Amino acid sequence: MTPAMTHHITHHLPEPMLADYAAGRLGHAFSVAVAAHVSLCDECRARLAAHEAAGGAVLETLPPEPVSDDLMARVMARLDDPAAAPPEPPAPSGIFPGPVMAALKGRPPRWRSLGMGIRQSLLHAGKDGSLRLLYIPPGRAVPDHGHEGRELTLVLQGAFHDETGHFGVGDIEVADASLEHTPVADEGTPCICLAATDAPLRFRALVPRLLQPIFRI
Ligand SMILES: [Zn+2]
């Protein structure tokens, strides 16, 4: 175990979300975030095992996932254009949990600047939501935002705090449409989070709102 993993996890997945995951009812973005938390958390792994034992038979009857949208593929291709890369050096990246490494398809994160030193690496964008890594410099705040749907934020490195509490490595925050929050990275270490949404975020500041269609955050 690395020192970063010794943080005691205090923010866990709610029971209905574990049940939905076990039954295959979550979209890709949420599934990766749930799997990544479970890979770090003994408590949720045990709770998930109970759901899987109870609902395993249901999985057999689920229809296949819908094919990805052609427009989304073209947006993704444009975001992958090296000419669109910001001038900043790439952010440091550690070893992420298995489900995150799988979502990265074995490649290092492709960081894009969101301004103010904040960067994101988009891993997935589809009708079922989006999945990205967020890099937040020490002491820096992510622009104030609310949610049309739900947002899962899993800390992979460092820590952040917002109006609802303090989140360290392995902690997962579940935010719904009623929460307008401003996550701020702790001093010391840059904070890297895995963030999954099942609907676009709405930012209150003007510039992030203009960037939203481009970055699909
Ligand atoms: Zn947990």
Tell me, what is the CATH class of the largest domain?
Mainly Beta
**Overall tally of domains:** 2
Bound molecules: zinc ion
Mean pLDDT: 78
Helical proportion? 25-40%
Radius of gyration: 17 Å
CATH homolog superfamily of the largest domain: Jelly Rolls
Largest sheet strand order: 1-2-3-10-5-8
In total, the number of strands is: 11
Order of helices and strands: HHHHHEEEEEEEEEEEH
Number of helices: 6
The largest sheet is: 6 strands, antiparallel
β-sheet strand percentage: 15-25%
Question: Uncertain spans, ≥5 residues at pLDDT below 50?
Answer: 78-92
Task: Compute the separation of the termini in Å.
Answer: 32 Å
Structural class determined from secondary elements = alpha+beta
CATH topology name of the largest domain: Jelly Rolls
Inertia-based shape: globular
CATH structural architecture of the largest domain: Sandwich
SSE blueprint and pairings:
Layout (H helix, E strand, L loop, with lengths): L14 H8 L5 H13 L1 H18 L10 H10 L18 H6 L8 E4 L2 E9 L2 E8 L8 E3 L3 E7 L2 E3 L2 E3 L4 E4 L8 E2 L5 E7 L3 E3 L2 H10 L2
Antiparallel strand pairs: 1-2, 2-3, 3-10, 4-11, 5-8, 5-10, 6-7, 6-9
Bound molecules: zinc ion.
Search tags:
single chain, 217 residues, alpha+beta, Arc Repressor Mutant, subunit A, Jelly Rolls, six-stranded antiparallel beta sheet, three-stranded antiparallel beta sheet, 30% helix, 24% strand, binds zinc ion
Summarize the structure.
The protein folds into 2 domains: 91 residues, Orthogonal Bundle (Arc Repressor Mutant, subunit A); 113 residues, Sandwich (Jelly Rolls), CATH 2.60.120.10. Helix content is 30%, strand content 24%. It contains 6 helices and 11 strands.
